[in-house]
């Protein structure tokens, strides 16, 4: 039975009210790590894949109150996150690179109502929560990240410089289920090339992939083409490939982690629970979640 300790912190100097935050639990570094998927964050998109800005903010608050801390996908892959003892790692991903994920204002700051702006605003108020996310984008002759060719380079650079990550989601949002190895290499290579052209700072740093429609290739050779390959002079290597509509991901300290890294599960977040989507309370209630012991790396190192 975990020892529960409630920590009280003052919201700000001179504030009489105190805020109850994170419930600290016994370390469990073999536990699972929730990797969330969001798509739209908008007040106007009518889709089950839309979480309005106020709801998104509220979901961040629920995770913060439950003791979660944001970590990057790189830190997860490398088992290299030093979050405080008793806290639980959480990874946020966005698929498809919608315009409402990231808008830059004229002064170079993020629009407070886009997804990045909401994470930034929440982190200003709750620095312990962290600020990072991964954007799995489509890029190529028919797709440009965040919906605007003119501003895509500046947005990608801003994300890289501010601790966010960019992942490959194919050039044309193709379902890889029935793709042959050439088609896999082409879709990944074209996306990779377009991202490098838009943002040379990304060179060598796009090493995570999210399957469109959550579907993996069925042909073993196509599956192999995901890991490493080359198309039109651009080579790539994917360290993690992420699925969709599932459950918390294995601990990077799990001895089976490296065998599972091309089928890492994620959890789709919706406004309401139902179908493939979940709300924070479902994630928070999952058994056997990873709880940090306060040191970088796993228990077994
Ligand atoms: Zn997608």
Tell me which CATH architecture applies here.
Alpha-Beta Barrel
The main pleated sheet reads as: 6 strands, parallel
- Write out the CATH superfamily name: Glycoside hydrolase/deacetylase
* CATH top level label: Alpha Beta
Please tell me what the overall shape is: globular
User: Structural class of the secondary elements?
Assistant: alpha/beta
Question: TL;DR of this structure?
Answer:
The protein is α/β, with parallel strands linked by helices and 301 residues long.
List the helices and strands and how they pair.
Layout: E1 5-10, E2 18-24, E3 35-38, H1 53-65, E4 68-70, H2 73-77, E5 88-95, H3 115-125, E6 134-137, H4 152-161, E7 165-168, H5 181-198, E8 208-210, H6 220-227, E9 228-231, E10 234-237, E11 240-242, E12 267-268, H7 280-284
Parallel strand pairs: 3-5, 3-12, 4-5, 5-6, 6-7, 8-11
Antiparallel strand pairs: 1-2, 9-10
The structure holds zinc ion.
Structure characterization notes:
The protein is α/β, with parallel strands linked by helices. The protein has a single domain, classed as TIM Barrel. 23% of the residues lie in helices and 17% in strands. The protein has 7 helices and 12 strands. The protein has helices at 53-65, 73-77, 115-125, 152-161, 181-198, 220-227, 280-284; strands at residues 5-10, 18-24, 35-38, 68-70, 88-95, 134-137, 165-168, 208-210, 228-231, 234-237, 240-242, 267-268. The strands form 4 sheets. Strands 3, 4, 5, 6, 7 and 12 form a 6-stranded parallel beta sheet that branches. Strands 1-2 form a two-stranded antiparallel sheet. It has a two-stranded parallel ribbon with strand order 8-11. Strand 4, helix 2 and strand 5 (88-95) form a beta-alpha-beta unit. Helix 5 (181-198) packs parallel to helix 6. The longest helix has 18 residues, at 181-198. It is globular and about 50 Å long. The two termini are 25 Å apart. Mean pLDDT is 90; it is low at 1-18. Zinc ion is lined by residues 95-96, 169, 173, 212. Zinc ion binds next to loops.
């Amino acid at each position: 039975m975990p020892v529960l300790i409630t920590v009280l912190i003052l919201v700000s100097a001179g504030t009489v009210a105190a805020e109850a935050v994170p419930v600290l639990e016994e370390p469990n570094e073999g536990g699972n790590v929730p990797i969330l998927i969001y798509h739209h964050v908008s007040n106007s998109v009518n889709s089950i894949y839309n979480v309005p800005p106020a709801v998104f903010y509220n979901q961040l608050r629920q995770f913060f109150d439950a003791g979660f801390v944001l970590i990057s996908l790189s830190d997860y892959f490398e088992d290299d996150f030093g979050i405080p003892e008793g806290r639980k790692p959480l990874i946020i991903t966005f698929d498809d690179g919608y315009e409402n994920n990231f808008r830059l204002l004229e002064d170079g700051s993020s629009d407070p109502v886009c997804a990045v702006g909401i994470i930034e605003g929440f982190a200003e108020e709750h620095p312990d929560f962290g600020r990072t996310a991964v954007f799995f984008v489509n890029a190529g002759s028919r797709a440009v990240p965040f919906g605007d060719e003119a501003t895509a380079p500046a947005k990608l650079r801003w994300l890289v410089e501010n601790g966010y990550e960019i992942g490959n989601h194919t050039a044309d949002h193709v379902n890889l289920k029935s793709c042959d190895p050439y088609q896999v290499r082409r879709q990944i290579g074209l996306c990779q090339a377009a991202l490098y052209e838009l943002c040379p700072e990304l060179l060598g740093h796009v090493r995570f992939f999210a399957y469109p429609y959550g579907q993996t290739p069925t042909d073993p050779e196509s599956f192999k083409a995901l890991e490493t390959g080359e198309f039109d002079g651009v080579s790539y290597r994917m360290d993690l490939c992420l699925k969709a509509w599932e459950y918390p991901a294995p601990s990077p300290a799990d001895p089976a982690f490296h065998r599972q890294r091309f089928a890492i599960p994620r959890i789709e977040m919706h406004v309401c629970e139902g179908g493939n989507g979940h709300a924070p309370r479902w994630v928070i209630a999952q058994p056997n979640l990873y709880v940090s012991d306060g040191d970088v790396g796993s228990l077994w190192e």
